[in-house]
Amino acid sequence: MTDRFSTHALELGDDLVIKRYASWDRGEPYREWAALSLLDEHAPGLAPEPVRAELDGVPPTITMSRMPGRALRGQHASDEQVSAMAAALNRLHRIPAPVVEAVEPAPWGPAVAVDKARRWARRQPDLGDDPLVRYAYQAGVAWLTSDAPDHLTTNLFPPVLGLADGNHANYLWDDHERRVHLLDWEDSGRNDRAFELGEVTEHISRIDGALDAEVLLSHIDLAPKEAERVRDFRRLIALMWFLQLGPDGPATPHNPAGTLERQTERILHLLG
């Protein structure tokens, strides 16, 4: 089966899930198997347990345990759920740095995101005629052309294992255990913690429901300099989505009416 958030075929059993990959040119099955294996050793229960893999099959497949719960995408997350989400992230980010250093870098990270946002800005995308949208675009371009994004590509803090995907569909609320599990590790790898937090707070999937980013971040212990990096990564990720939400933008068909206007408000709030 597939659902509206998945790009892969999933066969759901009572206790097991078989995942068949629709694409694997970036080594997605290898990334996911490596991450699940590492998590099973260092943070058991946080993600599905790896059972078996046919990584060289056509298509490649991974069999893993089935995690209970429902995705937080499309939900109005309660404070308890947000707290549990932060607890899951804190546990993930406490995997020892020497272990994480041996992991391949994630394909989606700071340098790639900065480059993508700037390329979209240079294209001067059609965002319509709304004066407030145009004002947000001008403010966003001014920030993107400053040197602030360049500082984000150098990380002095220890790396973390990250999903490299802030989609709220990857966060599964377990109503029985009252905790959050993390799914879909095909884009995972070694990454910048502040970038990962920017991804989960500003991914466009937040439009589908409500998840209080400030409450989430209040449960995560950040040094002042790292908190500043999270703030700027939030600006970067929010701008990247904003620039793709014009009438003919690639993100527009996948999001509800009014998304551009809501993202405009978000940009103006984040840029202060």
Please characterize this protein's 3D structure:
This protein has 10 helices and 9 strands. The protein has 272 residues and is an alpha+beta fold. It has a 4-stranded antiparallel beta sheet, with helices on one face. The protein has a 3-stranded antiparallel beta sheet with strand order 5-7-8. The termini are far apart. The N terminus is likely disordered.
Short description:
By secondary structure, the protein is α+β, with helices and mostly antiparallel strands. It has helices spanning 28-42, 79-93, 97-101, 110-122, 131-144, 148-151, 193-202, 213-218, 224-242, 259-271; strands spanning 9-12, 16-20, 50-54, 61-65, 70-71, 160-162, 171-174, 179-182, 189-191.
Core attributes:
globular; 9 strands; disordered N terminus; Aminoglycoside_PTrfase; single chain; about 270 residues; Phosphotransferase enzyme family protein; transferase; Kinase-like_dom_sf; transferase activity; 10 helices; three-stranded antiparallel β-sheet; alpha+beta
Write the layout of secondary structure elements.
Elements: E1 9-12, E2 16-20, H1 28-42, E3 50-54, E4 61-65, E5 70-71, H2 79-93, H3 97-101, H4 110-122, H5 131-144, H6 148-151, E6 160-162, E7 171-174, E8 179-182, E9 189-191, H7 193-202, H8 213-218, H9 224-242, H10 259-271
Antiparallel strand pairs: 1-2, 2-4, 3-4, 5-7, 6-9, 7-8
Helix pairs in contact: 4-9, 5-10, 7-9, 9-10
